[in-house]
Amino acid sequence: MRLQASALGDLVRNAEYIYPILESVHILGIALLVGPAFTFDFRLLGVGHRVLSITTAARYLLPVSHVGLIVAAITGITLLSAQATVVADTGAAPWKLALLILAGLNALVFHYGVYRHVDRWTDAAVTPIAARVAAGVSMTAWTGVILAGRFLAYT
Ligand code: HEM
């Protein structure tokens, strides 16, 4: 595989401290991604509706989540470069990829769907069913990505 044979793959495999440092930054990225995403999903389910509106929650939490996704993706691809063929052969790898795609598609459907009319329900305790379904799919998909990530690690 090209990625594995690259100079990057060679460096990550052979330098003493790079792999554990990348793993740690990968986990930091996951925390920055999933923490704010779940907090926003809880708000979609009504938690904290007396404290802040959906639009305020989105403006504050989602950019943090996007930074986390970028950090997790960059470190994930770099980790993969060390042993791409071994990781790709694990049963968990296609699950992780499919669930990442599902989480991404769910976010797109939410933003270009029900969120376009958020002004009508930004302060609501009970949000539209499509928003609550999006929250449930998001939490399930990210939990699945974490599970699949754990199952493909340390191979
Ligand atoms: C392009 C995106 C990503 C790629 C290519 C990728 C790749 C990898 C690889 C190769 C490992 C194995 C590291 C090892 O063997 O120690 C790993 C571990 C892991 N990944 Fe990812 N990852 C990505 C994004 C994510 C995201 C978004 C999440 C969670 C929301 C996630 C969750 C995990 C978890 C929980 C582990 C196990 C960490 C550990 O126990 O040390 N990954 N990832």
How is this structure best described in words?
It is a single chain. With 155 residues, this protein is mostly helical. Helix content is 76%, strand content 0%. It has one domain (2-151). The protein has helices at residues 2-5, 7-14, 18-44, 54-82, 84-88, 92-112, 129-152. Helix 2 crosses helix 4, helix 3 packs antiparallel against helix 7 (129-152) and helix 6 (92-112) packs antiparallel against helix 7 (129-152). It is elongated. The mean pLDDT is 95. Protoporphyrin IX containing FE binds next to helix 3, helix 4 and helix 7. The chain crosses the membrane at residues 21-40, 60-82, 94-113, 133-153. Keywords: Membrane, Transmembrane, Transmembrane helix. It comes from Ancylobacter pratisalsi. This is DUF2214 domain-containing protein.
Note the main attributes of this structure.
155 residues; mainly alpha; 7 helices; 76% helix; elongated; binds protoporphyrin IX containing FE; membrane; DUF2214 domain-containing protein; transmembrane; transmembrane helix
